Amino acid sequence: MFNKNPLRKRQRIGSFIGIGIGLIIYIILPLKQTESFLSLGPLNTGHEGLSCNACHTDAKGNLIQQIQSNISYTFGMRKTKADFGTENVDNKKCIECHDRPNDRHPTHRFLEPRFKEAIANINAAECETCHKEHNDTRVVLKDAAFCVNCHYDLEVKNDPIDVPHEQLIKNKQWNTCLQCHDFHGNHIYKVAEKIKDTIPLKQIQEYLKGGTDPFSNKKKYKPLTEEEWIKIKNKYAKK
Amino acid sequence: MNHLKTKWIFLLTSCISIIIQSCGGVPEETSSNGPSDKVFAVADILTLVAEENDITRTLYTKGIVGAGKKQGLKFDEDWQDDEIEAGPLPALFLRGISSDIRKSDVPLGLYLGSDFPINASNKFQGKQAELFTKIKADQKPQHFYEEDQKLYTSMFADLAVAAPCVNCHNDHKSTTKTDWKLGDVMGATTWQYPSDSLSYKEAIGVINAYRNGTKAIYNAYLKEIAAFKIDSTKPQIGKNWPSKGFYLPTAEVFIDSVRKLASYHSMETLLLVERKDQNTTKDLASN
């Protein structure tokens, strides 16, 4: 009755192969074993072995809902965009595991207007400015002289160190700050009182690249492990 | 044939559109339903929460720090260091509240600054410094829109309300001013919020975020006490305040006292808008 086009068979085979490959990708790519293949780069120091979805948590709603929301946003029918696939990884995600009441430089402090110029130079209000993930390192900054942005006019009364802070600042030796002071203030250690006893700059640089911790192996607060984080997340999800 | 193809494409597109549309989108995370809900001006709510802050800090400074020092309790800027057995100084108590607010979903910013701070990083600069000179002169709040950050900002005078404020700042080893006296404007709190108006739900959210912050930092202090190495340095924690002896109130007792002092005024402020609305409706009806 109908004249079949001889090319139809080829089209069908092509379609089946296409659907097959699609299905394989859909099944295989989300598997844990393929995570390293999907990753943008090796994880940073301390994050080795974390699952992708420890940070890249599922976005709210299903795929179709997310598409609809973003189409609505495009046409001005919605005020905010919806996350597509996975949620955006921001400070809040980092804080879920790294929240510490003793943080000497919490990111939110830099949101105050007085730090406007400082954060134009280095955006300390975002964790990833220093700790951008997938770089196989601890700190991505090229050098550790960032303290100058806020502490350029530092005056220390009753200065405890043999080479006074005033002198160090005058000589623009901003690389020496980290030889005594740990930026987030979580290490338990005794600060040196003589420059010659401070942590050598080379060791600090190695540490920033992911090397051994030269401050101390004792820390006041430890971050949550992935298992602890999942446990807490599930506890609140049930409520 | 072409006609048939077009028909199929049209049918397929329609089906996909219907499927996508029928699922509904991801709910938007807004706490109000429309502009009509936004009954509070941001400056009014920031004033309300700043007043709660004044009450909380005065209570902490007088009732805990001032009275506690007389009982032998210590307060230090490095209160969280393992080797230091002390509680947070009032300025750090505020910073603790501010940190806890940031952990919540309420987009409220709270900061403390001065022109003569103990810690140089708390010194006002730029527009804040400029407005602080006005605050120092008349003690009136300053409300402005911070263009770069796109945040509504209010600054309120922070007064030397109790003897410990004056004594500690005058005697501190790193002080930059040694002649503070009671009643002086020692600094200012800066509050920021991203919207020019708030709904009831958002206003309550702001108040709760502040109160939860108070509870969190006070609990952190009690936790620190629990870790003191010598038992005799640990005050008894319960219903009593340091004015009665070597005691500290529990977080619940402390917060309850704040509530008793602050809630009446806060509630009145919240209801004032409702009354204003009713009067406007009556005026419109009579016209």
In short:
Chain A has helices at residues 8-28, 35-38, 52-55, 63-74, 91-98, 116-121, 128-131, 148-151, 165-170, 177-180, 201-208, 226-238. Chain A has 239 residues and is mainly α. With 287 residues, chain B is α/β, with parallel strands linked by helices.
Give the key terms.
heterodimer, A: 239 residues, mainly alpha, 12 helices, elongated, B: 287 residues, alpha/beta, 4-stranded antiparallel β-sheet, two-stranded antiparallel sheet, 7 helices, 10 strands
Major β-sheet annotation of chain A: none
Encode the helix/strand succession of chain A as letters.
HHHHHHHHHHHH
Query: What is the beta-strand fraction of chain B?
Result: 5-15%
Tell me the number of helical segments of chain B per DSSP (H or I, 4 or more residues long). 7
- What would the principal axes of the Cα set say about the shape of chain A? elongated
The rounded Rg of chain A comes to 26 Å
Number of strands of chain B: 10
Global morphology of chain B: elongated
Mean pLDDT of chain A: 90
Strand ordering within the main sheet of chain B: 4-7-6-5
| Weakly predicted, low-confidence segments of chain A | none
Helical amount of chain A: 25-40%
* SSE sequence of chain B, one letter per element: HEHEEHEHEEHEEHEEH
Helix vs. strand class of chain A: mainly alpha
| Main beta sheet of chain B | 4 strands, antiparallel
As a percent range, the share of strand residues of chain A is under 5%
Helix % of chain B is 40-55%
Which residues of chain B sit in consecutive blocks of at least 5 with pLDDT less than 50?
A: none
Structure annotation, total helices of chain A = 12
The end-to-end distance of chain A, rounded to whole angstroms, is 64 Å
